[in-house]
From TrEMBL:
Listed Pfam families: DUF6597, HTH_18
Keywords: DNA-binding, Transcription, Transcription regulation
MF GO annotations: DNA-binding transcription factor activity; sequence-specific DNA binding
Name of the protein described by the UniProt record: Helix-turn-helix transcriptional regulator
Length: 274
């Protein structure tokens, strides 16, 4: 398996965290779990393998161009076949809305056919990506498409920037009293109701959810480093006690921390968890 990340050009840096390529020439029959990460993604299937997801506990084939909404619970995935090649766009948690004419919460816990939402232009882009001679040429095509979407979709940059600033605040103060929705709303002269509405519109989740997610992702990273005990990890990640840590971890992974630590995950081991 090969995984690499490509940084966006200057115009798209405020919106795209990175592009990524995941490929494998070997024959795969693999079941795995995708964990909540806080990001929306568009993924182009440029290979021959079939990917399936099971949001309703039943595996179904995904489209050739996948639009991943905000995934808030563990999602089962399955891949079958060889010549596996997936080229993805990973947006920041609040920036996919800049390219879509809908509220992000409408996509929650879904893997959609992107063509049904963005139309024939992205279908044409998929064909161009299949015909491109190099990865750099593919990235250039994607950036041209996204730049055109910036011109086509009406924007409210102040709202998006506000959500982005609050997300950064939540990341740096995770697990403290400063992350309460009431405290954040007062800081920014907003009502809690309006703050909740903005977050659902731009990210698909609430500020409280992102506070929980940051603690979970920190604990997950510490587990993978295999340097601390689970008791120490719970403390370092800001949980009140072990029962709180275990309960929250299970809500994001479906497993207790000790069970997850003992379980091999090919996708999670290959793809960086940032």
């Amino acid at each position: 398996m090969n995984y690499q990340e490509i940084q966006p050009g200057a115009l798209l840096q405020p919106y795209v965290q990175h592009y990524y390529l995941f490929e494998s020439a070997e024959q795969l029959e693999m079941d795995d779990i995708v964990l909540p990460g806080g990001h929306l993604e568009i993924i182009f299937n440029l290979g021959d393998a079939t990917w399936k997801t099971a949001p309703d506990k039943v595996f179904k084939d995904t489209a050739k161009i996948e639009l991943w909404g905000q995934i808030t619970t563990p999602l089962a995935v399955r891949t079958i076949g060889s010549n596996n090649k997936m080229l993805g766009i990973k947006f920041y948690p609040h920036t996919a809305a800049r390219f879509l004419q809908l509220d992000i919460f409408e996509l929650n816990n879904q893997v959609n056919d992107t063509t049904a939402i963005l139309g024939k232009d992205i279908q044409e882009l998929h064909q161009q990506l299949l015909e491109a001679a190099s990865l750099q040429q593919q990235i250039t095509l994607i950036e041209k498409y996204l730049a055109a979407r910036l011109d086509q979709v009406k924007a409210k940059p102040q709202q998006m920037a506000l959500v982005g600033n609050i997300l950064q605040q939540l990341k740096t103060t995770s697990g403290t009293a400063d992350t309460s929705i009431e405290h954040i709303a007062r800081q920014h002269n907003l009502s809690t109701r309006y703050l909740h509405k903005l977050f659902m519109q731009y990210t698909g989740a609430t500020p409280k959810y992102f506070d929980r997610l940051h603690r979970f992702r920190q604990s997950l990273s510490l587990i993978q480093q295999q340097e601390l005990s689970l008791t120490e990890i719970g403390y370092e990640a800001g949980y009140f006690d072990q029962s709180h840590f275990i309960r929250e971890f299970k809500s994001f992974t479906g497993l207790a921390p000790h069970s997850y630590a003992a379980k091999s995950s090919p996708l999670q081991e290959t793809i960086d968890l940032r």
